[in-house]
Every structure is written in C-alpha cells, then in structure tokens.
Amino acid sequence: MRLGELAPPRGAKKNTKRLGRGSGSGQGMTAGKGTKGQKSRSGGGTPPWFEGGQMPLQRRIPKRGFTNIFKQAFSVINVGDLDRFPEGSQVALTDLIATGLLRKTHLPVKLLGGGEITRPVTIVVHKASASAVQKMEAAGGKVEFISATEGN
C-alpha cells in the first residue's frame, strides 16, 4: 500500500447539497428556505440571545455596583516579606523580581504593612501605606519612593 492508494471507505464522503443552482437541481429558486420571511433572507434569522421580543435577560436582571475607570492597579509586597534580605541592604525592584516576590513587573509596586520586620532595610517602591512606613522606620529601615513613570 502506498500513500497515493489511500482512500476513505466507500460511503464515508458525501457530496454537499448544491443549493440555488437552477430549478433542475431540485434545490433551485428559494434554495430550500421556503418563501418569504425573515429566515429566508440573506443574513436573516435571530441571534441566539433573542427572546422573541420579551425583555432580554441582560435588561431584566438588576444592575449593582460601580466600576471605577480611574482605579490604579499595584503589585503588592508586605513588610514581612522583606525579612529575607540581609541587614542594611538596599532593596530595588530588580531584587524583588530576582527573589520571586514580584511577579507582575509591568505594574507599580506598593509596600503594605502586613507582617513584621526585624532588620533595617532600605526599600525603593512607588507607593507605601502609612503602617508600612512606620514599621520600616521602627526597625531602623527606610522607604524611598520612585515615580510611577520610571521603569522597573
């Protein structure tokens, strides 16, 4: 057997019905769509979500909440995560990426006050909560800020 001799089994392949090819074909004129009406037209028919003129589901259900279009997304790091760095070190964004603390590198970084820190560390971030700054300074460390436009 060769590649050129391969063929599907007899009856497995059917010719497609050739619609609208003249009255002699048996499927000419209206091409099996009947006469007149929305479904007989080109591009006719209703979309799957159409409910026959009944008020659609997306308009019937109550709308709640609010989406703030000016919301700023941040990559978040807690103060407790910085305890892994050596005492007195300067922690930049590249250090956070290298240790795996920072995954979303395209977002600005915000330091939050979760956890405890025992050693003085200087960290460079875009933003920090008041409790985070307080905990860092209590441990002898410092928080430095960079503008959000500067690269990571």
Question: Can you walk through the features of this model?
Answer:
It is built from 3 helices and 6 strands. By secondary structure, it is of the alpha/beta class. It is 12% helix and 13% strand. It has a domain at 75-145: Ribosomal Protein L15, Chain: K, domain 2. It is elongated, with a radius of gyration of 33 Å. It has helices at 57-60, 93-98, 130-138; strands at residues 75-78, 90-91, 109-112, 122-125, 127-128, 142-145.
Backbone structural class = alpha/beta
Q: Any idea of the CATH topology of the domain at 75-145?
A: Ribosomal Protein L15, Chain: K, domain 2
Order of helices and strands: HEEHEEEHE
Radius of gyration: 33 Å
The span between the termini is: 62 Å
Using DSSP, what is the number of strands?
6
What does the largest sheet look like? 3 strands, parallel
Write the layout of secondary structure elements.
Elements: H1 57-60, E1 75-78, E2 90-91, H2 93-98, E3 109-112, E4 122-125, E5 127-128, H3 130-138, E6 142-145
Parallel strand pairs: 1-3, 2-4, 3-5, 4-6
